[in-house]
């Protein structure tokens, strides 16, 4: 049976003689203590941008570390972007947001490693031993990588010389150009012709890449790398007029 609205209201409202204690009225100007207001913390636009930047940097660092470890463990050909994503704990599509191709993923790792190599070994002058020995010292870290990981070195050389444009490849090419400039400056400081020194530096770097890759194709022994690089540098240095 449905009660009339007035009866329902009366039954829901305590009578004046109810035994329930009366609720005291709040003091004017003081908020009611029984009312709890929940407010979300205000996040500024700069805080949100900072958080997104940190998340992006963290994902990129994990992807870089995953790709670097896989390149060392299984090599470029056997490395897959799916395994990189799994090891980095990101979605497969996330990897392509940072490196749109597998070759660019390789260039991401190369740029990270070569940046330190170039920065640590760029010379101010020929130093002790003459220009030939200093140029060989500049090339040695790259030669060591090629000896340790010949398969990866072959792909790196191919991408540097003939690869499709990409943001990380362009950074690697810029590092190579910086290395060429440093070698050319050494040759000029040692008395070489300015224009020929630039050509000689380019021949040393690009020719060095090709010489290092001969070991991968079986056209030369690993033990002959140092001698062949030395011969290449000798020819280029003489061609620059040093």
From TrEMBL:
Residues 57-117 form the HTH tetR-type domain. Pfam families: TetR_N (PF00440). This is HTH tetR-type domain-containing protein. Coiled coil: none annotated. It comes from the Bacteria. It comes from Dermacoccus barathri. Residues 1-59 are annotated as: Disordered. SUPFAM superfamilies: Homeodomain-like. Keywords: DNA-binding. Residues 1-22 have a biased composition (Low complexity). Residues 80-99 bind DNA. The keyword DNA-binding applies.
């Amino acid at each position: 049976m449905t009660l009339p609205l007035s009866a329902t209201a009366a039954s829901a409202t305590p009578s004046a003689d109810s035994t329930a204690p009366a609720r005291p009225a709040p003091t004017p100007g003081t908020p009611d203590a029984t009312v709890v207001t929940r407010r979300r913390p205000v996040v500024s636009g700069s805080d949100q941008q900072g958080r997104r930047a940190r998340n992006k940097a963290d994902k990129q660092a994990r992807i870089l570390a995953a790709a670097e470890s896989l390149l060392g463990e299984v090599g470029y050909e056997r490395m897959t972007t799916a395994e990189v994503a799994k090891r980095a704990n990101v979605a497969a599509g996330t990897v392509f947001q940072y490196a749109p191709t597998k070759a660019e993923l390789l260039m991401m790792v190369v740029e990270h490693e070569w940046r330190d190599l170039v920065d640590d070994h760029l010379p101010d002058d020929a130093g002790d031993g003459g220009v030939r020995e200093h140029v060989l010292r500049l090339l040695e870290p790259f030669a060591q990588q090629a000896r340790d990981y010949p398969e990866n070195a072959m792909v790196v050389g191919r991408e540097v010389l003939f690869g499709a444009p990409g943001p990380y490849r362009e950074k690697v090419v810029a590092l190579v150009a910086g290395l060429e400039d440093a070698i050319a400056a050494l040759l000029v400081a040692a008395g070489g012709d300015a224009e020929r020194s630039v050509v000689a530096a380019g021949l040393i770097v690009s020719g060095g890449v090709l010489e290092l890759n001969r070991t991968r194709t079986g056209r030369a022994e690993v033990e002959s790398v140092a001698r062949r690089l030395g011969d290449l540098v000798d020819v280029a240095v003489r061609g620059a007029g040093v």
